[in-house]
Amino acid sequence: MSSLSRELVFLILQFLDEEKFKETVHKLEQESGFFFNMRYFEDMVTNGEWEEVEKYLSGFTKVDDNRYSMKIFFEIRKQKYLEALDKRDRAKAVDILVKDLKVFAAFNEELFKEITQLLTLDNFRDNEQLSKYGDTKSARGIMLAELKKLIEANPLFRDKLQFPPLKNSRLRTLINQRPQLWNTNGARAPSPVTNPLMGGVPKAGGFPPLSAHGPFQPTPAALPTSIAGWMANPTPVPHPSASAGPIGLTAANNSAILKRPRTPPTNNPAMDYQTADSEHVLKRSRPFGEEVSNLPVNILPVAYTSQSHGQSSYSPDDLPKTVVMTLNQGSAVKSMDFHPVQPILLLVGTNMGDVMVWEVGSRERIALRNFKVWDLGACSMPLQASLANDYPASVNRVMWSPDGALFGVAYSKYIVHLYSYHGGDDLRNHLEIEAHAGSVNDLAFSYPNKQLSVVTCGEDRVIKVWDAVTGAKQYTFEGHEAPVYSVCPHHKESIQFIFSTATDGKIKAWLYDNMGSRVDYDAPGHSSTTMAYSADGTRLFSCGTNKEGESFLVEWNESEGAVKRTYNGLGKRSVGVVQFDTTKNRFLAAGDDCLVKFWDMDNVSLMATAEVEGSLPPSPCIKFNKEGILLAVSTNDNGVKILANAEGIRLLRTVENRTFDASRLASAAVVKAPPIGTFGSANVTVGTSIGDRAAPVAAMVAMNNDNRSLDVKPRIADESGDKSRIWKLTEINEPAQCRSLRLPDNLTAMRVSRLIYTNSGLAILALASNAVHKLWKWQRNDRNLSGKATASVVPQLWQPPSGILMTNDVGETNPEEAVPCFALSKNDSYVMSASGGKISLFNMMTFKTMTTFMPPPPAATFLAFHPQDNNIIAIGMEDSSIQIYNVRVDEVKTKLKGHQKRITGLAFSHSLNVLVSSGADSQLCVWSTDGWERQASKFLPIPSGRAPAPLADTRVQFHLDQIHLLVVHETQIALYDAQKLECLKQWVPREASGPITHATYSCDSHSIYVSFEDGSVGILTASTLRLRCRINPTAYLPSNPSIRVFPLVIAAHPSEPNQFALGLTDGGVHIIEPLEVEGKWGTSPPAENGAGPSTTSGAAGSDQPQR
């Protein structure tokens, strides 16, 4: 059902309950699956109505959905079985055993045998584990307590346990209100059947929501809304943690349920084994056990009446209140906006018509445009007359487009300018629109019909919508009786709409259909108001000031179209209109009384203020960056103060420390990428350079038995003097020299921490630093017959119909500071992943969390599936240990110890039967997978003059031959013989390229792709570790010298040896392939005497190389 149908079901459920149709109520609960009535469930369990219990449960879950569900059904059927035995009804017990309990034998055969043996006892209480079984009533009570905990912890029930708060007889009220809601403004209204936003009559799609911000968990997709009802999504609910626990004969044992996976003792410094647990008869087999919490047994459920949005706890310390810099504008600031992708780019507009782009990390103004009409001849006579006046055009609003590729400027004289931004100081005139008669008061971007548009409003009392590509006018909305002050486009599911406010305090709402406004409300105090949604789109706020100087900051109850709460603390005699902003779905800020004032969204009291060194005007302009860690505030001396919290200060310091050193890389300058739009030049050829004298990634190849070779000159450069065998390094400098594609992404752009192709090659999975996974899938079509990943066809950023995201548990850790890791099952059905919190197992088709386990500390830092048994995983930990974990029986089999710092790499060899681990201590260890003993260990030799970071990642990956090992460190690439742990070759890049960020074998193990901090990618011949091709960042990134963007991770296609993908610091993912006419990345350099034998390499395989 759709989200709107969901609301309708709740209205009907309330109505049926009020009318005492009890049987129908529970039937609808079960068939819709929207609300699990715990009280009804308790009554059925207490009365032993087992068939009804399972029938009711079937509307919400099945036995094999997850371990919680399996445990729930097992406990119910076990109780039914024991009750039959207690009544000495052997025939019924046998029937239950065969029909109900045998399904569990496949998961725990020993348990099923033990259950069967109970039939041979005169009294099942003679079994030691069942000796404390009391009477039927008490046994049901104990089981019920356990079932409730399992249901509350089961993800499938997480949004279904609380009925949303509704006013009494809500459905009747809505029906009675129909005439008033249908046509509030006297204009002809379209049929409510065809217009799902009308909400005036009780048709599907026409009901206002059930609550605003109640504790009910929504489906992740935004809900379609009745504008008349101003719908808001309900609230996610935190749930008490519980464990699916082991299934067993014992009566419910909460201490067993909440038990951690058993961690071995630590008597052996190198390796520990799991010992027996005397508390459990079934200790050797725990197929349904699941670690979810280590909380005490008597944990109390979380109160469901909370108004919380499920956010982590925040404090005033999270607010950006520390002044870190001042930017001098030269004229008064009227509007600001941070770039949606680059968190340190600030767009500023002033009262003199100037528009500037600042890079706050370096405090540099990287672009400036003054107000100037681009085509005076196309201007109307009123506009030309206005331009002849002495007073300049002021900027009223600046705003970036959602992807940051464009920004718009609304001026006080008729005009809207759209600029395209290409990085650095590269601003290009895109569109000039004579939008309104008089002042253009506001603009915003929206996506009606999935096409980027610009919404503007003005002094002429009109709202207009323009095509952002062509400038064509798409819609005109008329109906305000005063100048339109602001616009706020938004959407719920596929329904797009616009809120508008006017200077007379009227608020209206419009669909993109030229059918008139759907809503006509008064802003508090009839103020000139701006409106804004919280970042997640679920809560609506407005802030404004009326003619008397009274200011109002409020949250709206979209269910009722009324003010939900009014925040205290704004002045009563404000000068100008108070501006505000929201951030993190938690904080509000407003500029008032020469201060920045902060509120928690859920508390009307003023939370904090910032004087900003006493430099603010009465009503300063303010703007958060997307992450909420920086805040720009206009000052009374025509400047902008940048405020930051601790995370923002770290960000700025990182940018300052990594400022591009142009002098150091001057010798490595490459051809600049051509302007966007000229990539298809047919006369561009692949650039080459003889030798490697100017290369930032020149290689030093060393045999392991020659330590002096680390200090010798690059040998490739020497070859350039040999006229008889001249070889050219292939240099890729321009976009036309390769095929590259940035994958589409409408989700929050955060740096890509992990990246992998699916084993089928049909999709790419990325894990961002905010713990969210993104999956891109290619479709089979005429342009892509195989349906595999390619740079020639744009894929779809895929989400299941539910709209949920695969998001890792982060616990109390900051995901930005965590070490993310994931591993993909061989059949691409499941991904195991962690971002500093518990490890999660996700279903790749539904994105549902199948289970979570291993809560920190210590946190998992690397994951690898055993090549022969997907139930066994190796888990590298923050505390330097490696845990060999059996998912099926929920048990830590072995803990391996030998590293000194966190684990950063794991790789299995199925031919050698070994596990190789690498750590932030730059050490390699080899472990036998037969007995898990350590066979060898060795520290990487660090090249002279190189000082690795204290926690430098060391990665390992096996060659296709499963014998030779690729070792990746920020200072080097090395090949090892895994049997002897002997270094065969070493390649050290020049310092000018910056550290190595990542590297991987191509799928056929013939090449090694290496990414660097300067943004370049080197391609080595794997057998010789010789650089044969270099791709410079100008070939795939837009030129922007002020912003450091570089790949953090690189992934190789599992069946296309010349295709790889890059995960970037700006959140982008790029697919890169050679030109079809080239077919490969350069040519291998000639063999070198003494370079040693090539490692053997097998044919390209379909399996993803082990990470």
From TrEMBL:
Residues 1078-1107 are annotated as: Disordered. Gene3D superfamilies: YVTN repeat-like/Quinoprotein amine dehydrogenase. The keyword Repeat applies. Pfam families: LisH_TPL (PF17814), TPR1-like_2nd (PF21889), WD40 (PF00400). It comes from the Eukaryota. InterPro entries: CTLH_C, LisH, Topless_fam, TPL_SMU1_LisH-like, TPR1-like_2nd, WD40/YVTN_repeat-like_dom_sf, WD40_repeat_dom_sf, WD40_rpt. This is Topless-related protein 4. It comes from Morella rubra.
